[in-house]
Amino acid sequence: MASKSQHNASKTKSLNGKAESQGQWGRAWEVDWFSLASIIFLLLFAPFIVYYFIMACDQYSCSLTTPALDIATGRASLADIWAKTPPVTAKAAQLYTLWVSFQVLLYSWLPDFCHKFLPGYVGGVQEGAITPAGVVNKYEVNGLQAWLITHLLWFLNAYLLTWFSPTIIFDNWIPLLWCANILGYAVSTFAMIKGYLFPTNAEDCKFTGNFFYNFMMGIEFNPRIGKWFDFKLFFNGRPGIVAWTLINLSFAAKQQELYGHVTNSMILVNILQAIYVLDFFWNETWYLKTIDICHDHFGWYLGWGDCVWLPYLYTLQGLYLVYHPVHLSTPNAVGILLLGLVGYYIFRMTNHQKDLFRRTDGRCLIWGKKPKAIECSYTSADGQKHRTKLLVSGFWGVARHFNYTGDLMGSLAYCLACGGGHLLPYFYIIYMTILLTHRCLRDEHRCANKYGRDWERYTAAVPYRLLPGIF
Ligand code: NDP
């Protein structure tokens, strides 16, 4: 009932232009045809896109074009390809259940102790950003601890206990894909039903009246079970991101098993991606203030995306290197490492500058100087006026999303580590460019609605989004 009345409230607001533009942020209230068509396309085809990539590696040595050509020319049929695809197995189902249950356990039952002894690390109970309805949620930030324990156990097993082979993930890669899909769809469906029937906070739900859009982009802003189990924080970080580095380690172990050594390209991919993952967990508290947590509702986009898209497509470089053990020359390896590290530095420093600026309310130094800012005001759904500032110094004065630029440089480095033999490992940089450009536009649309004239003053002061002088 509560959700129904919220639905009506949202309609009234969307008819009142001012209230809608100033009072709301997050995903759309009304769905245009293009968005609807894109959503239906993704709901129908995204699982097949993931399957196509993984199957191409399994059956066609990672060639993206050969399967399509084989089907087009009649050399193979869909039925042939499907017949060669490993089905879900009891072993994979057990493995996956154990994996997710273990991560749930680490997330829900083990309060953070890392912040007690790691200098500079912020973990334990932390507050998120204020929601559109004016709620401030508390989170138990213990992702770094979960990552450390999981990896400690992984290495203990690999070098001491030998309960299972470190190649276990690679060896069950396709059967595990089916399990990940089952969880991804189950959690998104549950989130949808929960949004209608028993939302955690009815005031923070959004109903567009379009079933597909609601399913994909989510209804509830912060669905929770009990006081602490937060769907967004759990699914965004674990099991997908904790798994990312384990998956890479399993691919490295497979290379060792197949060729008797691990290539420098595989080591580079493992190191660069591990830096990114560790950075994510080290900064999990900061992450509570990013778009995923602050603005996105929890639906299929996050639920299925975190269970399937992320662990399967973000790890394509390592998978590719199992089939193609690329040996990089020393200058190439050093160049790629530098690109990855510089990209990471820009990504981290840009994020850090905004975080520092917002935390200290501008009372800090950026590049050795007092930062310049634009004063802004906005109104939340409860009608309250708030004031904030937009930074125009440091990397935020170079471009409006220079953190994305750094992220893209790092992403390019992973792909370049795979050499130039195939397109498949370059999917990541293509996808990230589309994702971050779209995210940039989506975020700016939201900020323009939220801040109105103040946002125009900001875009006049910092005219470019990603690359000064170009875009
Ligand atoms: P940002 O961290 O850039 O956050 C954008 C928000 O910051 C805006 O909505 C606005 O929020 C605020 N803001 C914008 N400009 C300014 C400014 N000049 N000064 C102060 N605040 C400002 O974006 P994301 O949350 O998208 O990304 C966080 C990081 O995560 C990025 O580095 C990105 O590269 C990475 N990322 C990685 C992905 C992956 O799949 N690997 C996917 C997505 C992101 P407010 O309403 O508070 O003003």
TrEMBL record:
Record carries keyword Lipid biosynthesis: yes
Reactions mediated catalytically: cholesterol + NADP(+) = 7-dehydrocholesterol + NADPH + H(+); 7-dehydrodesmosterol + NADPH + H(+) = desmosterol + NADP(+)
Lineage top rank: taxon: Eukaryota
Localization per record: Endoplasmic reticulum membrane
One Pfam family this sequence matches: ERG4_ERG24
EC number: 1.3.1.21
UniProt keyword annotations, A-Z: Cholesterol biosynthesis, Cholesterol metabolism, Endoplasmic reticulum, Lipid biosynthesis, Lipid metabolism, Membrane, NADP, Oxidoreductase, Steroid biosynthesis, Steroid metabolism, Sterol biosynthesis, Sterol metabolism, Transmembrane, Transmembrane helix
Membrane topology per record: Multi-pass membrane protein
Residues spanning the membrane: 33-54, 144-164, 176-197, 298-316, 328-347, 411-436
Gene3D superfamilies noted in UniProt: 1.20.120.1630
Pathway where it operates: Steroid biosynthesis; cholesterol biosynthesis
Keyword Magnesium applies: no
Described purpose of this protein according to its UniProt entry: Catalyzes the last step of the cholesterol synthesis pathway, which transforms cholesta-5,7-dien-3beta-ol (7-dehydrocholesterol,7-DHC) into cholesterol by reducing the C7-C8 double bond of its sterol core. Can also metabolize cholesta-5,7,24-trien-3beta-ol (7-dehydrodemosterol, 7-DHD) to desmosterol, which is then metabolized by the Delta(24)-sterol reductase (DHCR24) to cholesterol.
Family that this chain belongs to: Belongs to the ERG4/ERG24 family.
UniProt protein name: 7-dehydrocholesterol reductase
Species this protein is from: Microtus ochrogaster (Prairie vole)
